[in-house]
Amino acid sequence: MSVLEPLAARYAYWLGLPAESTVDTSDEDPAEVRAMPVILRMERAEPPSRTALLEAAAAAAVAVCLDERALPEGEWHEPLKAWVDGRIRKVARRARGAHWQAVQDLPGITIEVDGAEARALVPGRVVDTPKEVSRLQISGSELPADEPGPAPDGVPRLLLNPEVSMTVGKGSAQVGHATMILASLLDEAALAAWAETGFRCSVRTPPVATWKALCPVEDPEGSWRRDGVVAVRDAGFTEVDPGTVTVLAQRA
Predict the structure, then answer these.
(1) pLDDT in tens, 117-147
(2) Whole-structure pTM over 0.85, yes or no?
């Protein structure tokens, strides 16, 4: 049983919530809020390309969730299960030099795409965030838009909302949500094939018309059957309004 199974069960329900309900945290104990840290390597002298960094973050997040250590008998299972059973928060931080090297010793997985590196860590309670992570900045850095060219065949597509502006940190969290939701709905054969690629995916910003044609909010189950598309709907704690659909993921 995948630790991501609860996401599949509540996916359509979350898409159907009123926008004001997505930001309601009255059911949470602040001391028990959990998040997955996503560390983005952003060296000052040689910054990565924005698209490659987003693709690395997206792959790293789902790789942690589907690692053998996330299985019921594995050492990562309980912290991942506790996190997925609640809200799947991610906190993206930037690191360079010795600070980047320090987080390699924490439980997680690093993915490299075209020279860009991101490390997703095993989630935990925010109040217990290790000092190697808490000292890293969440905001303050941005990467310019790039022109990645046509998306490659044979990997899932992650489509950023062309009408919503997000920092690279926010975008990294959102594409990580997208790969997790997608993985929760794929059958075993498709998931195994994706794992063989290292969970590679493409991140692109489509034309507005393409986005609107694919957006599955009105019919999530039909959109999945017909187009293999799922959506990430953000709670609206940072950068975007509550209930905003930030990313679409389409199976390969």
Answers:
(1) 999 999 999 999 999 999 999 876 789 999 9
(2) yes
Backbone angles phi, psi at 104, to 5 degrees: -70, -20
The secondary structure of the chain as a DSSP string is --TTHHHHHHHHHHHHS-HHHHT--TT--GGG-EEEEEEEE--SSSPPPHHHHHHHHHHHHHHHHHSGGGSTTSTTHHHHHHHHTS--EEEEEEE-HHHHHHHTTSSEEEEEETTEEEEEEPPEEGGG--HHHHTS-SSS---------SPPTTS-EEEE-TT----HHHHHHHHHHHHHHHHHHS-HHHHHHHHHTTS--EEE---HHHHHHH--TT-HHHHHHHH-EEEEE---SSSS-TT-EEEEEE--
Residue scoring higher pLDDT (208 or 25): 208
Cα 80 from Cα 101, distance rounded (Å): 23
Rounded to whole angstroms, the Cα distance separating 51 from 78 reads 32
The set of residues, in sequence order, having a beta carbon less than 8 Å from that of 51 and lying 6+ positions away, is 146, 148, 203, 204
pLDDT at 27: 81
pLDDT tens digits, 150-173: 999 999 999 999 999 999 999 999
Q: What percent of the chain has pLDDT over 70?
A: 100
